[in-house]
Amino acid sequence: MADNRPIGIFDSGIGGLTVLREIIAQVPSESTIYFGDDGRSPYGTKSHDTIIKYSLQDMKFLKSQGVKMIVIACNTASTHAYKTLSQVCDVPVVEVVVPGAQAAVKATKNGKIGIIATRATIGSGVYESAVRECGKDIEGLEVVSQACPLFVSLAEEGWWDDDVAYLTAQKYLEPLKKAGVDTVVLACTHYPLLANTISKVMGPGVTLINSGIAVAGVVKDILEKNDMKADGKEVTRAFYTSDDPKLFEQVASPFLGRGLPQGTKRVQVDKYDT
User: Fold this and answer.
1) What pLDDT, on the 0 to 100 scale, is given for residue 253?
2) pLDDT at 110 > cutoff 80
């Protein structure tokens, strides 16, 4: 029997749309609800406890919408809150860290992997640990981590491929270039919006890992293995933000395409307190 409940996806802003885009591509028959917590973005500058608090509120809001699965489309929230959410949520919860780490290990040829993320993600060490665990069979594996906090603001402003983005990327990515990494994990879902600029700085020989593709594969597997697939007869795309809906759509629309998002509604998720 078909399960036509939507898949819920949340992020601290528009970055998680990179994950949503891949989910739509891989399981187009599934309805989705996306929540971008733009009003409290970015999560990467918040404390561990605050990130967990916000993530629990986001989860509770999506649960109130009757979702059958929750995707934490935010590396910072995945790093700090996945364990908590997976323990208290009664539907499957998918995070973005391990899928991205697995993809990076599979892609590298010289065993030198770079990780770029928010300060909170880098500071936690969770992503580096995931890469080392997934790559434990690679002799001499090197992992170079670099916080790139301004990338989130650039992504939110829509400054994806201009001089400001390029100069910022040059500064941030210099340690990775010096280390000779051949693979870079975009360990923040905002960062794929800057992929062209990052690729220009790193050069054609470096593979960029967008964990959204791997995450969508995990979502597809869970749906198939648990008999949770929708029949695709009435597919809906709902969007919510904690900030201004028009501003959200203005920034998000050029990236998502397909005439999306539309009909975005504002929601105050702090009422879903723990």
Assistant:
1) 82
2) yes
Q: Residue ranges of the domains in the chain?
A: 7-95+213-271, 97-211
Type of residue numbered 255: F
Q: CA 246 to CA 261: how far, in whole Å?
A: 10
In the set 74, 89, 134, 148, the catalytic residue is 74
Residue 273: pLDDT over 80: no
89 as an active site residue: the answer is no
Q: Which of 89, 134, 148, 188 is catalytic?
A: 188
% of the chain at pLDDT higher than 90: 75
Average pLDDT over every residue of 59-83: 94
134 is catalytic: no
CA–CA gap between residue 181 and residue 203 (Å, rounded): 11
CATH code of the domain occupying 97-211: 3.40.50.1860
> Where does 7-95+213-271 sit in CATH, by number?
3.40.50.1860
**Six-digit token string for 61:** 């809001």
> What are 239's strand-pairing partners?
34
